[in-house]
Design brief:
Elements lengths: L1 E5 L2 E5 L6 H5 L7 E3 L5 E5 L2 E8 L2 E4 L3 H11 L6 H8 L3 H9 L10 H10 L5 H15 L2 E4 L2 E4 L4 H4 L15 H13 L5 H4 L4 H8 L7 H11 L10 H10 L13 H14 L2
Antiparallel strand pairs: 1-2, 2-6, 3-4, 4-5, 5-6, 7-8
Length: 276
């Protein structure tokens, strides 16, 4: 990968497997939105950035320092996803799924934002999750500006921990408000240390996450994959269960995709949810 500074943008050349729509619309994140020109604007890690593609290059509206210190890692740009796709082509179904999902990258998201987002996501659809998170950020995040427009950062656990269910009522997230408050309070007081959990084995990390009120196996697995970047985690939702039941035996072990079962899961999810 080669990058160049052009006016107010960083141009990335030679980046393969980086489809903006597939990456931002595959259910792993909820604060990226496309504009009328097909560019995506997102708020993450206390920053706002705009990405667009043109003539095979990816352009990021950010400083060189922010690219090197934040976005290069966030977009997992040092990983060769083309080689991973080739590795995952273990059968005809995965050949179709990886080809269909070419361009998906697993983001390195903020740990607290990922945990709380997937707590909110339970039994919810993506447009509603986005709306709840947007209201949460507008009410309790910090206002920041990008290209003369207002945006809001994701509120830290310490701020949400001071709230109650009544103050979260504008989110209209129902019973999930209690789960969100429990997680925020435990993260804020240190009884759940996400940084320490990130250094555990996946099995140990999952056991620690399951101690949180309202966190079940699916949310824990999503947190492992999208919040802790443990790429062997394999969340199972309705789309993954359909993929498995239609293409594999009942005793299927996702370990066949190790150490990239989580990336395989994203290709499966995207293929099952979007194929015609």
């Amino acid at each position: 990968m080669i990058y160049h500074k052009h006016n107010n943008e960083i141009e990335l050349r030679g980046v393969t497997d980086f489809d903006l729509a597939k990456t931002f619309e595959c259910g792993q994140c909820f604060r990226w939105n496309a504009d009328e020109n097909g560019a995506y604007i997102g708020i993450a890690l206390g920053r706002v950035v705009r990405l667009r593609k043109s003539n095979g290059s990816v352009f990021l509206a950010c400083s060189a320092d922010d690219f090197e210190n934040i976005w290069q890692k966030y977009f997992d740009l040092d990983r060769d996803y083309a080689k991973i796709r080739e590795f995952l082509c273990v059968d005809d179904f995965m050949k179709k799924a990886t080809a269909f999902g070419e361009g998906i990258r697993i983001l390195r998201q903020d740990k607290w934002e990922a945990l709380s987002s997937f707590v909110i996501s339970q039994n919810n659809n993506i447009p509603r999750i986005r709306k709840i998170i947007d209201v949460l950020c507008r009410n309790y995040g910090e206002k920041i500006y990008f290209e003369e427009k207002e945006y809001y950062t994701y509120p830290p656990a310490s701020k949400i921990a001071l709230l109650n269910e009544k103050k979260l009522a504008p989110l209209r997230c129902g019973y999930r408000a209690g789960y969100l408050l429990d997680a925020a309070r435990k993260v804020a007081d240190g009884s759940v240390d996400l940084e320490a959990i990130s250094k555990l084995t996946p099995e140990e990390a999952k056991a620690a996450l399951l101690k949180l009120h309202g966190v079940g196996y699916k949310v824990a697995d999503c947190m492992l994959l999208f919040g802790l970047h443990m790429l062997d985690a394999f969340p199972r939702d309705v789309w993954i269960r359909r993929a498995l039941s239609g293409n594999y035996e009942s005793d299927f072990d996702p370990g066949v995709f190790s150490p990239y079962a989580g990336i395989a899961q994203q290709y499966m999810f995207h293929y099952m949810r979007n194929r015609q």
